[in-house]
Amino acid sequence: MKTTVPQDFDPEKPEDFDSAHREYARLRRECPVAHTDGLGGFWALTRYDDVKRAASDSSMFITSVQNVVPKVAYTGRRPPLHLDPPEHTPYRKALNPLLSLEKSEAYADKARALAQRLLTPMVAKGGGDICVEFSSYLPVHIFGEWMRMPDAWLDTLHDAGRAFILAVHSNTPERMKETSLRLYEMARGLIAIRREQPQDPEIDPTSALLAARHEGEPFPEELLVGTVRQVLVVGMVAPMVMIGNICVHLSRDAALQQQLRADPSLIPAAIEEFLRLYTPYRGFARTAVCDVEMGGRTIPANEAIALVYASANRDEEVFPQGDTFILDRPNIAQHLAFGRGPHNCPGVHLGRMQLRVALEEILGATNSFSLDGPVTVSRWPEIGALSVPLRFA
Fold first, then answer.
1. Which residues contact 147 (CB under 8 A, 6 or more apart)?
2. Going by C-beta distance under 8 Å and a sequence separation of 6 or more, which residues neighbour residue 190?
3. What is the DSSP code (8-state) at residue 50?
4. Rounded Cα–Cα distance for residues 285 and 322 (Å)
5. Are 230 and 79 in contact, with CB atoms under 8 Å apart?
6. pTM of the entire structure?
7. Contact 364, 260 (CB under 8 A)
8. Distance of alpha carbon 43 from alpha carbon 305, whole angstroms
9. What pLDDT, in 10s, does the model give residues 97-149?
10. Alpha carbons 230 and 118: distance in angstroms, whole number
């Protein structure tokens, strides 16, 4: 039974690019452990220490009940995100080696060639929507390469994945289920291909999952399909939103834009500060296994708790001038953009590579760029840009 408590904020009210961050700053000051009836009802942790605690303690804060806000798991469990340790661990063990720094960087040349190909028509016409025309395609194709998907599937994956993301943002359950099932069909199809035509499990994720054994047994079919389904879409959203966020910021800060263009060696450090400042996720969720005290409030057992990473990474107690971009911030390694604990992002190296290559190529292809229209922003669970029209000099 849900607890009757005050409504501390409204997660469904209209937002612009900056308004959510202003609201989280208010909550950190006034109500760091906040409750809302919106999006099905949940608690929101907005301070760094609370978010880090919940992300790190998988025995107290579990992910198997609800793993995201709003709740979208209408079509079965999808490891490893939907399972708790130790059940989730064999799936991570199978996938993690394929996402090492070395293997992720091996895709950099393909990412660069694709980035250049996507930017060429935009440069020719003097601009375009960097999210719709560039960053919605780059991660799909790179993830498709990593998944070793048939080339003919990539446009379908782009369209199906984008449809699912938009359904989540509009919080329409039937559309979420419908679009999720399309991705499940792709997962089953890819598994069927790998069963007929096995590949090296050291380079092919689906083959690695098929070859994996837990206590001597293969993964259950339902969870195997769920894992491939999860992997298909999980790496698509964050890079798309982040590239848009970065371009908005640089459109507003011409001096920083020119500094990075003049000295590309600064880009990796800038990427880390952008990740802190514009963390693309705010709705990953946990559920406390018993009543827990946080921020002077009691969160009852079995109620959804959102770990608002985007707020935690601007917590002034940890990151002074948290709303300000500071290149080479001394404690930047503390940011939580990739999570913490057993569910930290396994694709951290692949994600960083894509952001670095994308920013290098965008800056290299232009003399300057600026906003050329209104920015369309995402809703829970992401935070940031879905549409960023740019004008190129």
1. 190, 204, 205, 206, 231, 232
2. 147, 149, 206, 228
3. H
4. 23
5. yes
6. 0.94
7. no
8. 5
9. 999 999 999 999 999 999 999 999 999 999 999 999 999 999 989 988 999 99
10. 26
